[in-house]
């Protein structure tokens, strides 16, 4: 049985919803589709204030996407330390950071050619 494909826009919206439900902050969407060497179509980057909140964001994303789209990440890495958790949904990769770790690695600057969309916090 073939796996159904999920529209990137719908998946993006569900990931953002999951982040916002537990007050993840500084949400950026990097559109990588025009970059030849990109490994996926989008990066979503956000941060939490502690390892507890980082794990809460990751869990909220997984729960929201699973409930609404019946999908799960292909791979999740970093949950044990929860300073930088990477969630791989194949076409969309989510990076959930603690604020100081995000500032240190500054991965947005590594993808300077990407179109960046900032999502305003709703709280």
Note down, in words, how this protein is organized:
- This protein is α+β, with helices and mostly antiparallel strands and 123 residues long.
- It has a single domain, classed as Beta Polymerase, domain 2, CATH 3.30.460.
- Helices cover 36% and strands 28% of the residues.
- It contains four helices and six strands.
- The protein has a six-stranded mixed β-sheet with strand order 3-4-5-2-1-6.
- α1 packs across α2.
- It comes from Flavobacterium aquariorum.
- InterPro entries: Iojap/RsfS/C7orf30 (IPR004394), NT_sf (IPR043519).
- Pfam families: RsfS.
- GO terms for molecular function: ribosomal large subunit binding.
Note the run of SSEs as H and E: HEEHEEEHHE
Give the radius of gyration. 14 Å
Q: pLDDT under 50 segments (min length 5)? A: none
Tell me the structural class: alpha+beta
Which strand order spans the largest sheet, edge to edge or round the barrel? 3-4-5-2-1-6
Q: How many angstroms separate the termini?
A: 42 Å
What is the helix tally? 4
In CATH, what is the homologous superfamily?
Beta Polymerase, domain 2
CATH architecture: 2-Layer Sandwich
The geometry reads as globular
Number of domains: 1
Q: Report strand %.
A: 25-35%
CATH topology: Beta Polymerase, domain 2
> Mind summarizing the main beta sheet?
6 strands, mixed
Q: Could you give the count of β-strands?
A: 6
Oligomer: single chain
- Kindly state the percentage of residues in helix: 25-40%
Mean of all residue-level pLDDT scores? 93
Query: Under the CATH scheme, which class?
Result: Alpha Beta
């Amino acid at each position: 049985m073939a796996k159904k494909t999920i529209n990137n826009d719908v998946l993006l919206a569900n990931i953002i919803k999951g982040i916002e439900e537990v007050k993840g902050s500084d949400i950026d969407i990097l559109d990588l589709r025009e970059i030849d060497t990109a490994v996926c179509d989008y990066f979503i980057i956000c941060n939490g204030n502690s390892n507890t909140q980082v794990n809460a964001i990751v869990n909220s994303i997984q729960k929201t996407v699973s409930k609404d789209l019946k999908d799960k990440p292909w791979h999740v890495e970093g949950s044990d330390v929860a300073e930088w958790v990477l969630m791989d949904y194949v076409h969309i990769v989510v990076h959930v950071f603690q604020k100081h770790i995000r500032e240190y690695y500054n991965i947005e600057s590594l993808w300077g050619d990407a179109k960046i969309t900032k999502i305003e916090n709703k709280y």
